[in-house]
Amino acid sequence: MLHFECDYACGAADVVLRALTETNPEQHCGYGEDALCARARQLILRLCDAPDSHVHFVVGGTQANLTVIAAALRPFEGVLCADTGHINVHETGAIEATGHKVLPLPGTNGKISARQVREAFEAHAADSSFEHMVRPGMVYISHPTEVGTLYTRQELQALSDTCHELGLPLYVDGARLGYGMAAMPEVDLPFLARVCDAFTIGGTKVGLLFGEAIVLRGEELHRFFRYHIKQRGGMLAKGRLLGVQFEAILKNGDYVTLSRNANAYAQQIKQAFVRHGCALFSDTVTNQVFPILPDAVCETLSARYAFSIWQKLDGGQTATRFCTSVTTRREDVEALLQDIDRAFGS
Amino acid sequence: MLHFECDYACGAADVVLRALTETNPEQHCGYGEDALCARARQLILRLCDAPDSHVHFVVGGTQANLTVIAAALRPFEGVLCADTGHINVHETGAIEATGHKVLPLPGTNGKISARQVREAFEAHAADSSFEHMVRPGMVYISHPTEVGTLYTRQELQALSDTCHELGLPLYVDGARLGYGMAAMPEVDLPFLARVCDAFTIGGTKVGLLFGEAIVLRGEELHRFFRYHIKQRGGMLAKGRLLGVQFEAILKNGDYVTLSRNANAYAQQIKQAFVRHGCALFSDTVTNQVFPILPDAVCETLSARYAFSIWQKLDGGQTATRFCTSVTTRREDVEALLQDIDRAFGS
Amino acid sequence: MLHFECDYACGAADVVLRALTETNPEQHCGYGEDALCARARQLILRLCDAPDSHVHFVVGGTQANLTVIAAALRPFEGVLCADTGHINVHETGAIEATGHKVLPLPGTNGKISARQVREAFEAHAADSSFEHMVRPGMVYISHPTEVGTLYTRQELQALSDTCHELGLPLYVDGARLGYGMAAMPEVDLPFLARVCDAFTIGGTKVGLLFGEAIVLRGEELHRFFRYHIKQRGGMLAKGRLLGVQFEAILKNGDYVTLSRNANAYAQQIKQAFVRHGCALFSDTVTNQVFPILPDAVCETLSARYAFSIWQKLDGGQTATRFCTSVTTRREDVEALLQDIDRAFGS
Amino acid sequence: MLHFECDYACGAADVVLRALTETNPEQHCGYGEDALCARARQLILRLCDAPDSHVHFVVGGTQANLTVIAAALRPFEGVLCADTGHINVHETGAIEATGHKVLPLPGTNGKISARQVREAFEAHAADSSFEHMVRPGMVYISHPTEVGTLYTRQELQALSDTCHELGLPLYVDGARLGYGMAAMPEVDLPFLARVCDAFTIGGTKVGLLFGEAIVLRGEELHRFFRYHIKQRGGMLAKGRLLGVQFEAILKNGDYVTLSRNANAYAQQIKQAFVRHGCALFSDTVTNQVFPILPDAVCETLSARYAFSIWQKLDGGQTATRFCTSVTTRREDVEALLQDIDRAFGS
């Protein structure tokens, strides 16, 4: 079985595994206070051109999301996000388990707009029963989104301006950030560090064994953030593993270079389906593609390939998702491309 | 600097790193539903001689504790434990953050007794204001304890009998279980699987990069446990990493064999201090030793060795903790032994 | 200013105030364990024809909702309800503050159907990522609903059958139950006690100073319910006040009789608007009516009458809400009726 | 049975019941935004000589405590209090249910000192694992305490100075404040308003049907406090009931005058026991007295009088608690005094 159902089917990228192996015998103090983490944090701040920001590492994306959001909100506040947002749909209520309501807004291609944020905030403020309603307290978006789309620089700037005018921290979940940076270079680390109050640089889906780097602007969220991480169960005893991996993938630009390959593979897969007349459930330029397949093709391909059934549609069609990643092998993509042609009888 | 301040200063034991490297290119599905995790779970159940139990993996100890305890308790219930218990002292209120009070009992050498559990439970039940008080709902102990001591088989059996008579699940935090099994073989996996409702087989402190295996007896806690893990942020995307590591350390008995070495090193260190007339803050047979040092010795050794200051005592003495681990090197121990002699002027 | 904006503008119905005054000098033990509460509980169970159910009293509706829901759900479960449901919209995230997600379904006239419940439950169970999503764990409806509508006996029976087939407790928020029972006698207390796992008999909006009676079927939720009430801050020291009031309003049928008056007044108000050509935002037969008024009429009436602005509509129209209650005075209604005619220039 | 087991055995003081009756027919808007509450808030601020403070009303003490504490703390912070503190012992883990650990300090006569607070705070700050431990984030005391004792003005000033130096809000639970003010006039409302960041003026135990007034200094806690109250289920629909009652008991000084009577009765009871040679479990000058009785006397008296068994002691002795309140009747006290003499055979 060849795996295209997610972007975490393999272990680590070679450069990452090598760094883990090389540093394995070293002795370091625990909990991320070691020299390797310090070096990785410095590197990230340099890449972000944000000397006044701060970096924390956690193991996974749900942990990152729940820790940042619970740290930023007051008890009666909720977090605005797209209805398709990961925190709203796929984290088993992790945000609510910290006491906070997720406030979904109808997304367009997985995205929400500055205007929607403003309207939601102002509708709350204008309601005579405002104290009986959850107050919008921050904004969560993902880039790339759940459906593989990207915010433009203008859209992010507008969100940022609105958020800051309204006093709402803007948090960007960058679980697949590498693929986004590769596909749309204008949204780079310095830009994100400027427009967001907090964002993550995703590692798990971009070639690390695991790990998300959380970048926090200024001192406020940072000040007590390690308490939050520990309390939520996110503090890794051998924290150096996070520093080692992030330094390895970032220091020579592999984070973006390898992501660019993955995007190219994904686009080849997309084009193969489009050539055979398939529509797209969501049209993307990143590492996730969403072809709508005739059920017969779906069944044929599933004999040898793992991919996601995104949504059953009418008329014998199924929206699917194929993912590539930084560890996807060329030969697997080529096999898939041939089998797509074959499945369509050409 | 040579590190004896904790048991997670290095990376992984060789056997573990090798397994991670070998399986790195393999493709597997995510979230612990892969074949490698399945194999590791089978192995653990076989070692536990508990075919009706269930195994789940999480990354860290605080995560394991908060997930098990929050899954087992009703909202108004609390967890009985020793006042020195990790959940009471060193998890930044992670249990309380899930809504539950930790109910500390005065420990003796880090341990609590069946009698204390019964008295606490019965005192609650007998109080006319019982509904105004947190109900004891489960019992948490660690083996080895925070201060390196071990429960005997009799003590554990008595705790188990009392807990089950009172309807309280018994949970054993085995973050350092390997060292315990090496030092006191009578408390082995089959015994624990029989007397506990839940226990962990600690990996992070016993040669893994990270990872705790949670063994749950019967179906009740197991049934929805994956929801709990996901909600608390403990579900690792590349879950196979946990299966790979546990299989590697367990399949040939290294978990105990390597722990035995570590215990032996620790005892050599302890004896060196005792020979020079040092008292012990807690007398242990596992990988943590607690010599009380004259402040001058403490200062001398700290130039080259990292160890923990456990408690400042009167009279120019300091209780300290020296830890070894499965990755401790013989040459480091020998250097320390020599420097201990030197520090005492012999 | 005459108040029609809510159903809690006055103090208590005379019969209730009289009972409070008469029992005021009596000495009773606290926390609802007194003879007056016992008598009221017996009365309610008799009226419900449900000797195996149990009754608890709390002060307010949000308290009742959050206590029942947090007591019934496992940590990873959420509660299905209409998108307009009070717990989703007007309780400042009280349910989420206990750790649980509210799972809104699109309501029709404030109601949800058995079919919607089944589809939501089965969609969850069928999703391959089900453990990454909040599990539907119970169903919340209100009767009358937030927009004054009523479930028919058939609709409630269907919801009950579906819930029980799926293992979901059905909870009915009866904050305005008196008005519902007066308007649709077929949904009476014995019927509710049969079809629901938990429901409230609302007092605050039906002539009490305050108070909601919670009726729990069987033993399971009841067993530890007083712990839950105390933990959530809902246990009244002078609990007898709740027993006294409920007995007073229920023992001679005033709960329904007085509600019937209120409904009649509300319908007179509704008819007055309809006669002048007003459409209705929601057509109801209970104590809340929702006429859509020209803005000019809205402004004229607001000089002397307090009523709710429900929603600003296009075309110079405003959806409004007028409430009556068991303490509404005939003369106030007559004044309003005349002023409605006057406002429309007749 | 004559009730001396608590201070909430009767309904309301006459002056309070009269005010409730007189205002019962009035129409007011809900949720404490009415004119009667506004008047009561003004009165309290005038009595506190604290024009920049703010007043909120809730129904009960547990509600007041959990709402203030959860509003004031960051997620990883806990609240320091005496080990006998109500929040630590008798609120079914209500504070923990909001996510926060209660950090008990050993009390002396139910009190903690400025020095203990400083030591706990500094011990945390000095610990190298501080981020792994709950941070002390505020201080809770009660005045009178759980065992009827009082803080002196000097003790409170010292606590206040220390708290403010350390950045810890000081919160005083005044559930029985009236009895404290009557017994020790130097700790009056203006003093409390100066030294505390938040305190309550208890109503439930001092002649109201129910109600606690929360006084918050400055803007910070006040700003969003109504959201907190609503979220925790503490916002009373007919909020005017709280304003009416507090105004009634406070406006002519009855809060203290009636409390003084209660204290005098309690002291007569205490002296009666002392005259017969009884020791005191806690020596108090307020409305709670704690005589240690021979078991035989205990049994004799319990035939006609309800009082609390505080603690079973060795040697056939029992520590008991007798409470009076603002509604205690002279004739009941006289009966008790005679029966005490009789029980001791004189």
Quick tags:
four-stranded antiparallel sheet, globular, 17% strand, alpha/beta, 346 residues, seven-stranded mixed sheet, 44% helix
> So what's the oligomer here?
homotetramer
- Radius of gyration of chain A using CA atoms only: 21 Å
The averaged pLDDT of chain A comes out at 97
Helix/strand order of chain A: EHHEHEHHEHEHEHHEEHHHHEEHEEEH
Terminal residue distance of chain A = 23 Å
Shape by Cα distribution of chain A: globular
Task: Describe the sheet with the most strands of chain A.
Answer: 7 strands, mixed
Which consecutive residue ranges of chain A, at least 5 long each, have pLDDT under 50?
Answer: none
Largest protein-protein interface: A-B, 52 and 52 residues
- Count of separate DSSP helical elements of chain A: 15
Percent of residues in helices of chain A comes to: 40-55%
Please report the total strand number of chain A as a whole number.
13
Task: Summarize the structure in words.
- 4 copies of one chain form a homotetramer.
- The longest helix of chain A is centred in the last third of the chain and has 22 residues.
- The model of chain A has no long low-confidence stretch (mean pLDDT 97).
- Chain A is 44% helix and 17% strand.
- The first copy, chain A, has a 7-stranded mixed β-sheet with strand order 2-8-7-6-5-3-4, sandwiched between helices. In chain A, strands 9, 10, 12 and 13 form a 4-stranded antiparallel β-sheet that branches.
- In chain A, a hairpin with a 4-residue loop joins strand 12 and strand 13.
- With 346 residues, the first copy, chain A, is of the alpha/beta class.
- At the B-D interface, loops of B face loops of D.
